[in-house]
Design goal:
alpha/beta; two-stranded antiparallel sheet; 7 helices; 12% strand; globular
Length: 257
């Protein structure tokens, strides 16, 4: 299913991490700023450290600690914002990605950077859902609680393949699918929003939408109204919105308003 939110409603539903909202990968890694917690080198993207390495550069034990850091950061903030039902796990606002050996090999295997992101968010969600079942967590349980994975910039594409027989996109394997309760947020910032997704200039992004849908049970869409190819150029996106919604309805079979 696809969710369509106005900006005001979307903001009112989305939790803040230590007072901030959006593109907070490194804030989640740091945790509570008052505690000055350790941030390990392998948790940061290689080589520029401007994103997170979801694989902790191959250190499995350290990756478990990174999952716990993310989960506890979200839990700490959720306890004080129980009206917020969407908690975002997204990258920093840049076009970088991790190029460590592990992530590079996964990129070759899956054709994108998001297989490891999906695994990581599934693990964070599992940690939080387990916490909800503890004596401490039971009073905070809300069935509407969602984590949200952000498909953006270098993490826009999804690990899906085209099935020639069915004419549909499907996950490359069964592991690269979000678990229930996790929302995939598609933010194809380089798409041409003044044109329909059916227009040939957006063929790649239309296929990306379908690929993300194949790897998730629930989607949201971030629609831009700025021309990132030429900031000063007039940018009419209003006339394409209806067709975009119709296309997304077909992709997801349903629009949840």
């Amino acid at each position: 299913r696809i969710r369509m939110y106005a900006s005001e409603e979307y903001g009112s539903l989305t939790g803040r991490i230590y007072g901030q909202q959006g593109h907070l990968a490194l804030e989640l890694v740091k945790g509570d700023p008052e505690l000055n917690l350790e941030v390990r080198d392998e948790w940061l993207a290689y080589p520029d450290k401007t994103q997170v390495c979801y694989m902790a550069q191959g250190n499995e034990e350290s990756r478990k600690d990174l999952v716990e850091r993310y989960a506890t950061s979200i839990i700490d903030n959720y306890k004080n914002q129980l009206d917020k039902t969407i908690w975002s796990i997204d990258g920093e606002d840049n076009a970088s990605c991790c190029n460590c050996e592990v992530c590079s090999n996964l990129r070759k295997k899956y054709g994108c950077n998001t297989a490891q992101m999906i695994w990581f968010i599934n693990d964070v969600n599992a940690y939080i859902q387990a916490w909800f079942k503890t004596e401490e967590g039971k009073p905070y349980y809300n069935p509407e609680f969602h984590l949200r994975g952000h498909f953006y910039e270098a993490y826009t594409d999804a690990p899906a393949k085209f099935n020639e027989e069915t004419g549909e996109w499907e996950p490359i394997d069964e592991t690269v699918v979000f678990d229930e309760g996790i929302m995939a947020n598609c933010a194809p910032i380089r798409a041409y929003f003044q044109y329909s997704y059916h227009d040939e200039v957006n063929t790649m992004y239309y296929n990306i939408l379908r690929k993300i849908a194949a790897c998730s049970n629930e989607m949201s869409l971030w629609v831009y109204s700025t021309n990132f190819h030429s900031y000063l150029y007039p940018y009419d996106v209003f006339n394409t919105l209806q067709e975009s919604y119709q296309i997304l309805s077909v992709i997801n079979n349903n629009i949840n308003e």
